[in-house]
């Protein structure tokens, strides 16, 4: 652990931050509590970034420029020079936010811990914006002190806490953790909305924040750490258990109109302890041993086709050449197998039912889907026939194995243009379906299984299964899951197709499939 600590802090970037902070202490004659933000800008934020992001030399230079800009402001510069330095720092925080967003684009919604770290990096730009507003004297609708406090809030509660909770998730993720992570992720925004618009929203959001902090502290004591780290990583959360109560009392005072804790009290206790114990020991604690990310790059093939598919080949008989690559044919109805291997022999009738809560969004989406000719499902629930052809697609054009496109239509309108292929990962075969979109493509990676003669397909399975969006070289997992079941009843095939977003059901389709 001593080696880890040396590696983390015997670093030019971190040493520079420490020296610049000491220089600011000597040169800046402002009130002591202004250094709470300076400490975050020069020490805590750069240290955590150094630990969670593999920074190249020029990227370390970008962060160093931001640190220098903050330090120069302490020299009592003329107004214009100070504003320019604040703009420089803001631009650096925007760059950090982009790095966080880029991390997200390489992964998507499938890893709560990493997603929380990404969000913390994005939040930092908001803190940089409020810092700029404080230095330049922009009228934010709040007092000068509250503007500065908002800047510090987004450096500590939004960036540092989100990153720290994300690192906890690298060790272990449970349902309790996911609930707490959601509260921590949304807390900076809900608290800000409450302060701005509603004291009731403020007290509710702060109360939820308090519960999440206490639950995470309990969670921290159940995790296994070794040596000195066992103590140091827990102290910041114990500190928050104390300081967050001051925020709750302050919010209650705003709601009731009785001043119980004022801003100076908040700074003396809440601010000081958060800077000294939460900020310092968060950095030191994780520097002792940084948890490794469990996220691995996606390695399944994606289609290279973007926009409308223009070039196709000869007709093809089915969506799949042989179903035995997915399931044991003996466990599935012979007619179901026949449908996938000889799709052109069948007629398809569909009835679409949007969930009530989603219907306004479905109506808006139809305006877009008609123009792009993709995912263009009818708004009405009346049964309609879907016609179309299956055509070969050039492997060189698509980039996957034996692609073929199934273009489904209702009358003259295109409903789906889905390019079917397959791939294998760790001995498991997945149906790999690409839907070309403008400048991107959506991929449904489906796991297939047989159950009582039925065929079940889902994106909510193991391994690669999921719904993804490919944009350029980025592949991000979407919070969409589909469940498709097809079976034989009374001599014909029937199927259901259900879709959820963030676990909430929004679409159901009933299919009737008959021999033509």
Automatic annotation (TrEMBL):
Keywords attached to this entry: Membrane, Transmembrane, Transmembrane helix
Coiled-coil segments on the chain, per record: none
Ranges that cross the membrane: 9-27, 33-53, 81-101, 113-133, 145-169, 176-197, 203-221, 233-251, 271-288
Keyword Nuclease attributed: no
Pfam family, any one: YndJ
Name under which the protein is recorded: YndJ family protein
InterPro entries in alphabetical order: YndJ-like
Keyword Iron-sulfur: no
Organism (species): Jeotgalibacillus salarius
């Amino acid at each position: 652990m001593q080696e880890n600590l040396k590696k983390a802090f015997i670093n030019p970037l971190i040493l520079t931050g420490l020296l610049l902070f000491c220089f600011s202490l000597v040169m800046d004659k402002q009130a002591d509590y202004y250094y709470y933000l300076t400490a975050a800008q020069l020490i805590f934020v750069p240290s955590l970034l150094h630990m969670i992001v593999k920074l190249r030399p020029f990227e370390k230079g970008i962060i160093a420029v931001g640190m220098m800009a903050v330090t120069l402001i302490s020299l009592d510069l003329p107004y214009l020079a100070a504003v320019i330095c604040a703009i420089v720092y803001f631009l650096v925080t925007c760059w950090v936010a982009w790095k966080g967003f880029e991390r997200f684009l390489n992964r998507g919604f499938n890893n709560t811990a990493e997603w929380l770290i990404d969000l913390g990096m994005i939040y930092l730009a908001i803190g940089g914006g409020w810092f700029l507003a404080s230095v330049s004297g922009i009228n934010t609708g709040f007092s000068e002190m509250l503007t500065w406090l908002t800047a510090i809030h987004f450096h500590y509660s939004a960036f540092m806490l989100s990153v720290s909770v994300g690192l906890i998730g690298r060790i272990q993720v449970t349902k309790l953790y996911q609930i707490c992570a959601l509260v921590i992720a949304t807390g900076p925004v809900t608290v800000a909305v409450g302060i701005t618009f509603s004291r009731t929203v403020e007290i509710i959001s702060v109360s939820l924040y308090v519960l999440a902090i206490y639950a995470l502290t309990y969670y921290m004591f159940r995790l296994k750490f070794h040596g000195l780290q066992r103590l140091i990583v827990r102290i910041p959360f114990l500190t928050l258990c104390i300081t967050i109560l001051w925020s709750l009392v302050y919010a209650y005072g705003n709601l009731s109109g009785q001043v119980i804790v004022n801003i100076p009290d908040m700074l003396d206790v809440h601010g000081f302890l958060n800077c000294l114990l939460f900020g310092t020991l968060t950095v030191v604690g994780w520097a002792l041993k940084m948890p490794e990310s469990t996220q691995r790059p996606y390695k399944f093939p994606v289609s290279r086709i973007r926009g409308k598919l223009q070039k196709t080949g000869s007709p093809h008989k089915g969506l799949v050449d042989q179903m035995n690559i997915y399931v044991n044919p003996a466990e599935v109805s012979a007619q179901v197998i026949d449908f996938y291997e000889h799709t052109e022999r069948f007629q398809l009738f569909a009835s679409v039912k949007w969930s009530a809560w989603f219907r306004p969004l479905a109506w808006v989406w139809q305006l877009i889907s008609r123009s792009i000719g993709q995912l263009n499902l009818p708004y009405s629930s009346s049964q309609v026939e879907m016609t179309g052809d299956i055509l070969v697609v050039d492997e060189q054009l698509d980039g996957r194995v034996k692609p073929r496109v199934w273009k489904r239509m209702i009358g003259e309108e295109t409903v789906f243009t889905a390019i079917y292929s397959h791939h294998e990962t760790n001995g498991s075969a997945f149906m790999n379906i690409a839907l070309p979109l403008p400048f991107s493509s959506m991929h449904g990676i489906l796991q297939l299984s047989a159950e009582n003669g039925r065929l079940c397909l889902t994106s909510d399975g193991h391994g690669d299964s999921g719904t993804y969006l490919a944009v350029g070289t980025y592949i991000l997992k979407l919070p969409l899951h589909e469940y498709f079941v097809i079976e034989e009843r009374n001599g014909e095939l029937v199927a259901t197709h259900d879709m959820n977003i963030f676990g909430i059901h929004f679409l159901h389709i009933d299919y009737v499939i008959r021999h033509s």
